[in-house]
Fold this protein.
Amino acid sequence: MTSTSIPNLTLNNGVEMPALGYGVFQTPPAETVTATTKALQAGYRHIDTAAAYGNEKEVGEAIRVSGIDRSEIFVETKVWISDYGYDATLHAFDKSAGKLGVDQLDLFILHQALPSRFDLTIEAYRALETLLADGKVRAIGVSNFMPEHLTELLAATTVVPAVNQIEVHPYFRQPELLAMNAEHGIISQAWSPIGGITFYRDGEHTSTLQDPVINEIAQAHDRSAAQVMLAWHLQQGRSAIPKSVTPSRIEENLAVGDIELTTEQLARIDALETGVRGGPAPADITLETFGREIPEA
């Protein structure tokens, strides 16, 4: 099954984005070219990377060797907090575009809110607005922004983010944040969409992939637990960024466009919410703890 079965989402500025993207978080650079090339061959047309992942160059290489026209591939990357500030963020574009080997990015987003230096966050976003106005990027957005960060950003800037990439999976849904994104026409994009981070739940070491409710629904559709979770995101209007370096899973994750979960099944998955975050709390992101130099292109 190719990407034709995966819907496009229309961003708030009219740009079309494939709802399912291929993620390369924590994929070592040495494996990134092969895995990303495999994803493109399987039918993915949306690739999500970040300056902080250290593998933009390899993603660019995969795009070049794939033989697929650049205009057919939606490329998304992120500015790291160390490059926040107006001029620094303009330069962060040059670094990312240079490593990716592209003239234009399809989506450029701020990787985190920086609550302790929100002035720098605002300046960084203003740089994204400039890049958008200059045609260097087709859409701009944010990642890991909580409601209070969005409120402050919207008050200080002009362009509403097209996307907010956040941790969303059946065990951690962030319903208030999903609602706020929707209210402002911001697409919620799920990282760790199948709960890739393992959770301690009710005293057990379990993951969403072993969840009995999800597996029961998967059996009813004769599909895998991962496929059911991705279908859950798509049916609720979200973008999702699954990641895998295993060829069979890369293909399996893409073959979800034809799954139709019932309203009851969607509600049962929603009800698995634990309120327990797997990734770092956005409030804890500081330059002192998480700052790191992003190399030149």
Residues 59 and 142 are 21 Å apart (CA to CA). The longest strand covers residues 74-79. The mean pLDDT is 94. The chain is about 40% helix and 15% strand.
